[in-house]
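Thread: flavin mononucleotide complex, take 2
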Amino acid sequence: MPGGPLLPALLLRGLRVEPPVLLAPMAGLTHTAFRRLVRELGAGGLLTTEMLSARSLPREDRAHSPYLRRTPSERPLSYQLLVADPAEVAPALDVLHAEGADACDLNMGCPAPQARRRGGGSRLMERPDVARAIVAEARRRTGLPLTAKIRLGERLEEAPLREFCCMLEAEGIDLVTVHARLRGEPYGRRPRWDWAGKVKQWLRVPVVANGGVFDETDAQRCLAASSCDGIMVGRGAAVRPWFLADVAAALRGETPAAPPALPAVYQRFAVLLGESFAPERRLGRLKEFTRYFAQSYAFGHTLTSAIQASRSLGEALDRAQAFFAAEEGSGAPWIAGDRAVAAASPGSPDP
Ligand SMILES: Cc1cc2nc3c(=O)[nH]c(=O)nc-3n(C[C@H](O)[C@H](O)[C@H](O)COP(=O)(O)O)c2cc1C
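Output below.
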């Protein structure tokens, strides 16, 4: 595109995020296997873990924890912490430092009751003094880029949102991601990208817009409405794991590459699950992924139901193969006897 990329790289304390396209943290989805998949399909930018409980993290068995598993290709990688109390910060950051984290994100937007009951996630926006103490403590304890992910709050009110965001910046947050919905608003609701734009106007640190970006037009509209410094993509990357690369291409003014064959992507994900997780942990993650991935097909709900009803990874893959053969014809790319299928002994329940 004449004039170069629409958005420059983000620079966060020496960490260069280029393109400024970020994977959204998604519990049950953005684990090592998924991150490897999106990386293999061209994602640059910044990857992330699922949210990690700061309270539990120091007790994790670091060598075996499925939440801490990562490979060298998953860089740069931000670790998202669900924190409710400043006392949880230092021990959790010790783990992140030992793991070689590239950045740390503080979850201040999660509306889930379990997170809120403990005082974390979006509850922190209602407890600004605790949020301030958490950020101050984190800033004291780490030289890593420190970011915060927020929603718009309880009601559409500029004053409290502005005060909260300015407090984050004053305490040393390096970047704010705005999931452009109020705490109580469902995912089906159109995101309020213009409100991410308000936050952008109030702050000097970079602001990233999140929510409801499912195709390149959404990405462009989101940027036009918000003037933000980057885009964070969640479910769109689970539906189409190559989508982060497409967004980056759109930001460069380029036409995205032709999409890969869906059956091959699905099977590759299964192989990566097999490489990454103990047998009993693979099927649940395949089910979670399938809920989104299947949306690429008009009759994807039949794939979702078939996988949900499967009792083993092997059975799930047999059913997926049948679905793809029916959808795409017998020429659907499918490598019989791949490692994931072999590891799960097709048709038999996982141990
Ligand atoms: C299955 C799922 C799990 C999520 N888990 C997290 C999480 O762990 N931490 C977080 O900050 N947000 C979480 N979110 C919210 C996403 O990060 C993102 O803000 C939201 O999905 C909107 O972006 P999208 O429209 O691009 O998906 C989750 C969303 C989904 C759908």
